[in-house]
Amino acid sequence: MAADSTRWRQVAFGAAGVVALAAVWEGYKAVGPEQGVTIAGQAVLPRTTDLGMPHLWDMVTRALEPATSIAGADAVWVAVLQACLVTLGTAGAGLLVGAVIGVLLALLMQRFQVAEWAVLPWLILSQTVPLIALAPLVVSWGGRLHLGPLQWETWMSVAMIASYLAFFPMAVGALRGLKAPEQAHVDLFRTYAVSWWTTLLRLRLPAAVPYLLPALRLASAAAILGSVVAEVSTGYKGGIGRLIIEYAQSGSADPAKAWSPIAGAVLLGLGAAGLVAVLGLFLARYRHNEEHA
Hints:
Oligomer: single chain
Distance between the termini: 24 Å
Largest sheet: 2 strands, antiparallel
Structural class: mainly alpha
CATH class of the largest domain: Mainly Alpha
CATH superfamily of the largest domain: MetI-like
CATH architecture of the largest domain: Orthogonal Bundle
Order of helices and strands: HEEHHHHHHHHH
Radius of gyration: 23 Å
Low-confidence stretches: none
Number of strands: 2
C-alpha cells in the first residue's frame, strides 16, 4: 500500500511539473519582450514572437494537420511517431550492446582489482570525446568493414554511437552494485568455499539490482540522445533526429510544426525511462535501498 501511494505521488508530481512548465512557457510569452533579453550582447532569454515561441495550442493544432500539402499526406504527429519508432529501434540496439559491454567490464573490474585500476580511468576518459567528432569516424570505419555477406549500414553506425554513450553508466552502476554486498555476507560465502560464479549469481547480482535499474535509466536516456545526435551527424534518414532538422528548415514559414519532432524526442526519452520502470516492477523484491539517479 505504501509503495502504491509513493508511486502515485511520483506520477502526480510529474504531471504537476508538466503543467508548471506549460504555464511558464505561456506566461513568459505573454509578458516577455518580443526581442528577448540580452545582456552584454548575449541572449539570456528567448524572443516571444510566434516564430521563436509559438503558443502551445498552435503546436498541438499543427501536429494534427497534414505534414505537407500533398493530398493524402500523413498528419505531423503520425510522421513524428514513425520517426520515433525508427530512432527507438536503433537506440534499443545500441542500448543492448552498451549494456552487455558495460556489465562485462564491471564483472572484469570486480573480479580483478588490477583491472579496475587499469580500465576505470579509461572509461571516464572515453566520455570526454564529443559525438560530433566521433560520428564521422564511426561511419568511415564502418564503411571499411567486411562482414561476409553482411554490409555495414548507416543505422549500425547510429546504434554504435548510442552504445558508446550507454555502456558507461551501465559499467559504473554495475560495478557499484557488484561491490554492494556486505562484507559479512561475502565472508560467509567464502567460509563455505562457494565458487565465484555461485557467489555472483546468489549474492552479487541480486544485490546489484538497486544499482542496475538507475544505471539502465541513465543508459536508455543516453542511448536516445546518442541516436538523435548521430542521426544528425551521419545523415541517417528516417529517425527523429533528421526530422528535427527537416522541420526546422521550414521553421520561418511554419514555426509550430518545427516543435513537433522536438516534443517527440522528449516523449521518446520519457518512454524509454518508463520501460525501465516497468522492468523494475518485476524486480521489486530486489529493490531495497535503491540508488536513485
